[in-house]
Write a structure and sequence with these properties.
388 residues, RNA-binding, THUMP_dom, alpha/beta, seven-stranded mixed beta sheet, 9 helices
Length: 388
């Protein structure tokens, strides 16, 4: 493996590719290309460690190690059996395979995963007279199999557990927002830690914690214990320790406020547990408060939230979104507010025209991330921002 010029693919959610590309450029990635739900780039081993440790909108970071065309299963097996697997793992290490198959020739991803597993195991048995073990939960080495028609790409997964698993979430609500999606939303909304932040329906506190991490410039994985690259043959412990030290030394002071409201005491307890786990009790305040009875008490203010919507949590109140709009208009003048929703008809009841609409997915749900600008007195005319 050429550790100076690694080809790197970084997975993300639909709609967050430009945010991730900016992160990659800031961290020193070369030849950055936007793909669908991914960003491709080049970098050295130090950059690979940096991106795993720091990128907020990365889901997993892959290093392609072999690519070939296969027109049938035996050709697929033969190519993999001849590959030098011991360049990337030892016979005593455990491994696992993730797969994505989009092919008329190879319709069953599970079957192709088994064929790849057989090829790896047979390679080691043939060369060393011993078979490596498969471990699905926490393998030493993780491979990713991608088949697009007849093109097969095998990658090393440098992350291990998906990077949305930050390590601070101890409790979750009925419909928690993914940490990577939360951070992406905040960055799309322009949150940079200047001013004050409010999540008026905070649930278990993910948006609040991600907002605080951005405000303090904490690396996304500061609470994470392990990465898959730490089990690689070329792992450089000293280099990774230095990268972490330099990154943590960049942490900033934050002078604003980050506040969360919720009406559910159980959710507030969950939020407090997660905030404590993230060591953010001094930065984030949560309180029992109905948003519809609240008034703006922080200046300037950015508001981002994930209101309940029908597919995830039933809303008994048909006027929910009308109340959101009324609260915006009467109690939050001169405020920028963003919310995410999959109920595109119901959000019309807000009664304000969104100045931006960004298509995102919350799990499998297609949603819109909507920006509303509230002005005191005469409303300025703004053109519609993003296309749906």
């Amino acid at each position: 493996m050429d550790t100076e010029n690694l080809k790197i693919q970084i997975k993300t959610f639909f709609g967050l590719e430009p945010i991730l590309a900016e992160e990659v450029k800031k961290l020193g990635g070369r030849n950055v290309e936007l793909k669908n739900r991914a960003v491709n780039c080049e970098g050295d081993l130090g950059f690979l460690y940096k991106i795993n440790y720091s990128a907020r909108t990365a889901l997993k970071i892959l290093i392609p190690i072999v690519e070939f065309k296969a027109f049938n299963e035996s050709k697929f097996y033969d190519k993999l059996f001849k590959f030098e697997w011991d360049d990337f793992m030892s016979v005593d290490q455990t491994f696992a395979i993730d797969s994505t198959v989009n092919s008329e020739r190879f319709k069953h991803s599970q079957f192709m995963t088994f064929k790849m597993k057989d090829a790896i195991v047979d390679f080691f048995q043939n060369r060393y007279g011993k078979r490596p073990s498969i471990e699905t939960k926490s393998p030493d080495i993780k491979f990713h199999l991608h088949i697009d028609r007849e093109l097969v790409t095998i990658s090393l997964d440098s992350s291990g557990d998906p990077l949305f698993k930050r390590g601070y979430r101890k409790e979750q609500g009925e419909a928690p927002i993914n940490e990577v999606l939360a951070s992406g939303m905040l960055q799309l909304a322009g949150w940079d830690g200047k001013g004050n932040f409010l999540d008026p329906m905070c649930g278990s506190g993910t948006l609040l914690i991600e907002a605080a991490m951005i405000a303090l410039d904490l690396p996304a994985q500061i609470f994470r214990r392990r990465f898959a690259f730490q089990n690689w043959k070329n792992y450089d412990h000293e280099l990774f320790s230095k990268i972490k030290e330099v990154r943590v030394n960049r942490v900033k002071e934050f002078t604003g406020k980050i506040v969360g409201y919720d009406i559910d005491a159980r959710m507030l307890n969950a939020a407090r547990t997660n905030i404590e786990s993230a060591e953010m009790e001094d930065i984030i305040e949560v309180r029992k408060q109905n948003f519809f009875d609240s008034k703006k008490d922080m200046f300037p203010l950015l508001m981002v939230f994930n209101p309940p919507y029908d597919e995830r949590i039933s809303i008994n109140d048909d006027d929910f979104y009308k109340k959101v709009g009324d609260t915006f208009k009467t109690h939050y003048p001169n405020t920028l507010a963003w919310l995410i929703s999959s109920d595109l008809e119901a959000v019309k009841k807000i009664g304000l025209r969104p100045s931006r609409k960004i298509k995102l997915f919350n799990g499998k749900l297609e949603t819109r991330f909507l920006q509303y600008e509230m002005y005191e007195g005469t409303k300025k005319v703004h053109k519609l921002g993003d296309k749906e």
